[in-house]
Amino acid sequence: METKNLIPIEQFCSFYKIETTFIDSLESFGLVEVIVVDNNPYFPEDQLAAVERMRRLHYELAINLEGVDAINFLLQRIEHLNQELMYVKNRLGLFE
Amino acid sequence: MEYIDYYKVLGISKTASEGDIKEAYRKLVRKYHPDLNPNDKDAERKFKEVNEANEVLSDPEKRKKYDKHGKDWQHADEIENAQKQRQSQSRRNPGNQNNSSEFSGDFSDFFESMFGGDMGSSRSRQSKFKGQDINAELQLNLEDVYESQKQTLTVNGKNIRLTIPAGVENGQTIRIAGHGNPGANGGPNGDLYLTFSIAEHPKFKRDGSNLYATVNVDLYTALLGGEILVDTFDGQVKLKVAPETQSGVKAKLKGKGFPVYKQEKKFGDLYLTYQVQLPKNLTAQEKVLFTELAKLRKNGN
After folding, report:
1. Continuous H helices in chain A
2. A5: closest CA of chain B, how far (Å)
3. Shortest distance, CA B171 to any CA of chain A (angstroms)
């Protein structure tokens, strides 16, 4: 399998000096998708920004993983609501 | 330069213990962290203030200096001497100056006057920081996003070449990783968040990938049927008008709308609303004939 769009978990964790168990925990919460290629674990590149954000929440703000999970959910809802707002604003433009 | 009361920023008293400072900092940094307040400039500003206050008050030496000269810092000989000393150090070692200037933008002028642009040893002990994200707006016309196109943008003095995908929405934000401000202590660069502001088109209204337009049809074509030429986004098309077409009737041109975002060669539909145009400045003969038509219709009904 091609690993071009995958981030090696070892490399990510060593860059930020964190334990790889952090990514395992995120996976157990369903917050990241771990893909194993040739016995090496990776996560998709498009999840990098989210994983980096969760790392900051956990290590810089000392928020436990249950809190990170809840924040993640709420941020997704905000994002969804923002998109809906954008859609509604654009629809409103049709009638102006 | 405005004096900043770091105790006030953290909401603590001057007698606060190290533990109180830590607790107040943690509480406020959570409240204003950019990850928890996306695209909130006010929270971003407060987050910087809280970090700056913590940088000073959590370091006993800096706190002592701040407590001593805080309000009268402009007149403190000690500060001037420290600045002179620092300047001579940076002349001897210009490399250090370059490193520190990367991060100096995160602190107020007040902080830099007191403690310099160099964050000192306490900063270097801290973990890597991702650079600040940049939010920018790109104004485009509807035509600009009908096809994917490459554009070079200048953001913060840097040229960024990017492809604007066809079908991007008004108000949509895309993230361009690594094109924000530089990271600190070897941390990664921030990201660039680019929001598209797409101007209204004089002819076409857009709803997602569907387009809406009004077409004028002359009275005779509307009554008797015929063909008209209508504008679409990729040129004119011939359209059959059914006899006795009323004003407000809609026609759908499948696949003649706007490209669907990130779905190559997939297009929405174009919805046309017929607007029947009545003739103006009737001649005497036309008036006679229309009167006759009116009588016919009256008698017929």
Report:
1. 9-16, 21-28, 48-55, 65-94
2. 14
3. 6
